[in-house]
Amino acid sequence: MKDKKELKGVEKAAILLVTLGAERAAQIYKHLKEDEIEKVSIQITQLKAVSPDVKLEVLREVYNDILAREYVEQGGLDFAKSALANAMGEERAKRILERVQRSLEGNPFEFLDKADPEQLIMLLENEHPQVISLILANLSPEQASAVLGGLPDQVRYEVIRRIASMESITPDVLELLRTSLQTRISTMMGGTAKVGGPELVAEILNRVDSNVEKSVLEKLEKEDPELAEQVKNLMFVFDDFMLLDDRDLQKVIRSVKDNRDLVLALKGATEELKEKFFKNMSQRMALMLKEDMEVMGRVPLREVEAAQQRIIQVAKELDEAGEIVLQRRGAEEEVFI
Q: Do residues 19 and 101 both lie within one domain?
């Protein structure tokens, strides 16, 4: 494992979440954007052994940043600088405050991080190396490296040299450059970039609690029935397991870690769907689940829906891994040869 000084921000975030545990990590996920969740989740899967010292340093850094933010909010930067310097020395206080300031101010070029690198290269290829270096210095390392790789050799060298020697720049200049770039990239893309649509709505609703999903769909059905139908056709719901190939359903059943989820989920299923599940498991397992369903008695609907969502999530993970193929109602049936 790397030393803490060599860790990227996303690696520190992954270590923090793993250290805090699954329950607290889930609470933090609720406050992150979807692309942030994706990046951190991927990083968590790639984490190897993390020493206790590295975990402690990451926790200490997060604590100090939170402390600094509180000081800034209470009395401004001067108060925060004085309080932190008294607590941990001037040099360390300065580093922490610089980090917090960058976070509070935000990144004026954040919109470029989601742009196609090829478009950025076209946008910047005729710019002066000083302008290019300023922009790349404000992009994520991944996006900056992708753009840098597409620049001519001589320009690439000049840009790297200027980034290495770059110092502070006034906010007015950054804002002027940001506005100019936003206008030009919008013109280049012709104003037709796809940023939403029924597909995105379906994907979002597939990830929220069932109560939120129901509420949104009910309102959508009242205001725009046609759009609501489009969204529902793009979503995968528990009843759609009826469309699943038997072998794929068997893989889903085997991948469900807690049989109690199957018991709860099937309590809210149609008789036809129950039978489909039962015929795709061993007779012994089917008998055991049926007995558990009878013994369990009445359960809150929210528990049934939560169990169904967990099984749906298992199926989606298998689908994304290419192990099964999920069919949705209204979607064109995939043909295999």
A: yes
DSSP-based helix, strand, coil % in the chain, nearest 5: 75, 0, 25
269-300 tens-digit pLDDT: 999 999 999 999 999 999 999 999 999 888 88
Residue 131 sits in the same domain as residue 221: no
CB atoms within 10 A of CB 38: 11
- Cα distance between residue 291 and residue 297, in whole Å: 11
Q: For residues 217 and 208, what is the distance between their CA atoms, to the nearest angstrom?
A: 12
Residues 6+ apart with CB under 8 A from 253: 262, 277, 280, 281
Q: For position 294, which CATH number holds?
A: 1.10.220.30
Phi-psi region of 89 (alpha: psi -120 to 50; beta: other; left: phi over 0): left
Whether the predicted model's global pTM rises above the 0.70 cut: no
Residue type, 38: E
Q: Which domain holds residue 58?
A: 4-105
